[in-house]
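Batch manifest line 224
LIGAND: farnesyl diphosphate
JOB: complex structure
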Amino acid sequence: MNPLNHVAIIMDGNGRWGLKKYNSRNKGHRAGLDTVEKIIKISIKQKIKHLTLFAFSTENWKRPKSEINYLFNLLESFLKLKLKKFHKNNIKLKVIGEKKFSKKLNNLLLKSEKITKNNTALQINLALNYGSKNEIVKAIKKINGKKLEVTEKNITNSLYTKNIPDPDILIRTGKTTRLSNFLLWQISYTEIFFSHKLWPDFQEADFLKIVNKFKKIKRNYGDI
Ligand code: FPP
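JOB STATUS: finished
ARTIFACT:
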């Protein structure tokens, strides 16, 4: 049985779910947050150490301003409401991506990271304003700036995900089979699962089915 340390998720399908059910993409994002909570709980139960959630990509800035504002307001109220509980449950929060938001949100994210930094049950890596190609370019620039050699190890250690093990599993919901510029360096040996369910419909049982399937896979890493 494969050990499972890190699950990464592209939480796709909120917009379609909201439009279909309530004629509102934003209602889909609100419902998606309930799934986030369910998956956090089940990850702790499963003793998973890292949960990386793609919440906002560098490309998502192309969306209507009203949707972007809704998403960041949702994140802000969620953090304000849950920070204490996260801390109490020994959850560590880390943002991966460029923290270029409103001063208020930047400060709240920094505060959440600071308060929870020594927690050890589950680390939630929240990908916000995250793009993998941009992350790799920045890493190489950092290496060059320090006049170091460009090696795999130096790149790995210069990414936002420094000190985070590579994902064992990547899940993408929403019936779409693409990677959308997410963790391209980190997923070279990750097992990838695509779910047809839209993110608000994704349940604990769907997550567990994937986890159990993963545990039985023979991982070769290029060997036989
Ligand atoms: C992708 O669905 C989802 C997002 C871009 C945002 C993800 C946000 C949440 C799950 C809720 C908020 C989370 C936090 C942590 C506050 P989409 O909008 O691209 O869906 P579509 O493909 O149906 O349009």
